[in-house]
From TrEMBL:
The keyword Signal does not apply. The keyword Nucleus does not apply. This is Putative signal transducing protein. Keywords: Membrane, Transmembrane, Transmembrane helix. The chain crosses the membrane at residues 92-109. It comes from the Bacteria. It holds the Pfam family DUF2007. Residues 1-58 form the DUF2007 domain. SUPFAM superfamilies: GlnB-like.
């Protein structure tokens, strides 16, 4: 989904781009590691403009329900993964074992925010 959002943004800025290995990864997500994931390709001439757009997107801050910048309670960083699926803790460990034994996807996870700098997980 992120690749399509970025592709749409680049095309709206007049930068032609293409997604490679998208269908292969969608058919079997386990192939993602083998092929290196979905790749967004651009022309060499559009490299600087694309990097500028990526810096602009990465530089944006996430806001909480009060309109304040969401920050990590441990290190005060604003670089976060939002809605991260975490299996930390006893329930997550038991879910992983159960999933492995019955060969099913994990049945338990909690949705948290995760800091990109220190790795702390917290609920927002």
């Amino acid at each position: 989904m992120e690749a399509h959002l970025l592709k749409s943004r680049l095309e709206s800025e007049g930068i032609p781009c293409f997604l490679f290995d998208e269908h292969l990864v969608n058919m079997n997500p386990l192939y993602s590691v083998a092929v290196g994931g979905i790749k967004l390709k651009i022309q060499e001439a559009d490299k600087e403009k694309t990097l500028e757009i990526l810096r602009e997107i990465e530089g944006g801050h996430n806001l909480d329900e009060n309109g304040e910048i969401l920050k990590c309670p441990e290190c005060d960083s604003a670089r976060l993964y939002l809605n991260f699926k975490s299996m930390k803790g006893t329930k997550g460990f038991l879910s992983a074992i159960t999933s492995f034994l019955f060969m099913v996807f994990p049945v338990y996870f909690k949705t948290v925010h995760k800091c990109k700098d220190c790795g702390a997980e917290f609920r927002g």
